[in-house]
Amino acid sequence: MRSTFTLRAAIPLAVVTLVALLAVLRAFSFDEVPAILARGMQPATFPQLVAGLVVVLAGVAFLQDLRRPPAPQTALPRIYYLTVLLMALFAALLVLNLFLVALVVVTPGAALMWGERRPLMLIIMALAPLAAIVLFDMVFEVRFPRSPLMNLYYQWS
Amino acid sequence: MDLILSGFGALANPDLLMLIVITTLVGTVIGVLPGLSGTTGAALVLPFTLTMDPISAVVVLATIYGSSTFAGCITAILINTPGTSASATTCLDGYPLARRGEAGRAIGIATLSSSFGGVISVLFLLFAAPLLAGIAYQFGPPEYFALTIFGLSMLATIGGGSPAKNLIAGAMGVLIATVGVHLATGIERYTFSSDALYDGIGFVPVMIGLFGIAEFLRQSTELGLKREVIGMKATRLPCWADIRRIRNTVLRSTGIGTFIGVLPAEGATIASMISYNEARRTSKNREEFGHGSIEGVAASEAANNSAVGGSLVPTLALGIPGSPTAAIILAGLLAQGVQPGPTLFTEQTNLLSALFAALLLGNILFIGVGLGGAKIYARITQMPVPILWPLVFMFSVLGAYAIRQSVFDIYITLAFGLVGFLMQRYGFSVVSLAIGLVLGAMVEQRLDQSVAMYDGNWLLMFTRPIALAFFALTLLTLCAPMLARWRQKRKATRNGSGQGTRF
């Protein structure tokens, strides 16, 4: 069955066009350099060219969608929004500089939310970030942001 | 031939052999972890090589480079997160194969193609390296610009969606690459006065977000679906019929990969993309591409691994690194007191022969690591979703952080995870965006240099035959779908009128 074009289907292309137009406008505020320094192009020229191209291509894609409308999207399940919320919680904990806590909460949290019920498995999932951090620290010499828990780890190691 | 024999003679040392085996395994682990690329691996082992003799040092660096590039395909196939940018194209068909329960077959195909591509490219380079270095010397900024534009034009047909939407995604990637300080003038662009954006948006966090986190979100939408029991099929390796089917694709992709790898640019990524497109164009099973084609996996992997050997040619012969990892190898050579240049091929034959022999041996070892491990790796796809994907999320976040040790990069990863999910949902290719981002800085730099070269008269670029040829190919690539449709329509009209006369 052929789907019909709806304004809803045009939203992604409208967002793309808006972002590209904002990029073009923003580029007008870039500083200009004297011609002797800008031997090739001014710093704003290339982004404006590319963003302009995006606007043109979005127009072409819109016309194509009008001729052959994309299949309508099914609604996203509740668990998707909960997962996004969990990611937001992760980001919030990062803002509070609680890197390790964020990982220890979110890794088993996602497993629990997605249906894992075995206590032992959830404990392993909570311990997995600790093991991964030790691996990245010891083998790849990656230093993690300081926090009370990380300080304990660094004192121990 | 003498060069190979003397190379294998140098590798007859058991310590050196053991070093190659260990380095191959380390490189494989590095390539498998999202965020840790061959460049990171080479950078990590560089300090250790300073204490080694020049031959061991070069052998270690080259083996890390080859094995991590190969291993990038494993995560691309299993969890849709390429270990390296060169494996981004492998996701297109490798992951659908894994989802179908054919992870072992996909990894096996990738292993054989990588290994074959690597071996042929090294053998070819043994004889043709000085000649190829001469060709690479013919490439100036306009030629590189034209080549990169040609590479970007391939995005139109990548991913199977609408060409216009694929190109939009690629152009958005190029636009994102302009964030940060403009290197030629020092002017800030789209930084919004944030120090974190001063150096631009890193490729690795974006890639991890677009592939790893976006897939994590997509998995959450499919939790309610009843999963197919894939059982032992997941660990099944490719059969002879598969190998026969990919034979020509691998040969063609190896040629493309070796040639493009020689050019000082982001060789492996462009090579895999062009090879993928070429494989799709010439395949009898074109409709399978993007849905789990073994030819797609073979094309991408043969090309990116053959580009590894190729990228060492300008590094060794001209002292111009062919890729970021080759730049680290160059640093390692200089630290050892080895001066790259045309004379290297006549004055340092021992070093070169050991390097080529190590690359050959490394490529043969991949078969063991890849095929031997394929059954084990494939079992990852059989892990319960609520266990596997939260772990992927954890490693994705750690990988995003590890590269620059910046929390800001984690925010970038999370944001691009959401963007990637929405892009896929609305028919935009995430592979196009990732490749646009990798090539963006290069396109601008080459265009800038070309414009400066001709004092602002950029039209003069079209007077250079190689550049003109690439521009013509770009035009052909972009017009090909329209031409194909027009031909189809004409054929249908002819058939229609033909039928009409019969009645």
TrEMBL record, chain A:
Domain DUF1468, chain residue ranges per copy: 13-145
Membrane-crossing residue ranges in chain numbering: 45-63, 84-114, 120-140
The keyword rRNA processing is assigned to this record: no
Keywords: Membrane, Transmembrane, Transmembrane helix
Domain of life of the native organism: Bacteria
Pfam families for this protein: TctB
Name listed for the protein in its UniProt record: Tripartite tricarboxylate transporter TctB family protein
UniProtKB/TrEMBL annotation, chain B:
Signal peptide: none
Keywords assigned by UniProt, alphabetized: Membrane, Transmembrane, Transmembrane helix
Pfam families xref list: TctA
Boundaries of every DUF112 domain copy: 17-433
InterPro entries the record matches: DUF112_TM
Sequence intervals crossing the membrane: 16-35, 55-79, 106-132, 144-160, 167-184, 196-217, 351-371, 383-403, 410-442, 462-484
Domain of life: Bacteria
Protein name listed in UniProt: Putative tricarboxylic transport membrane protein
Organism of derivation: Kushneria indalinina DSM 14324
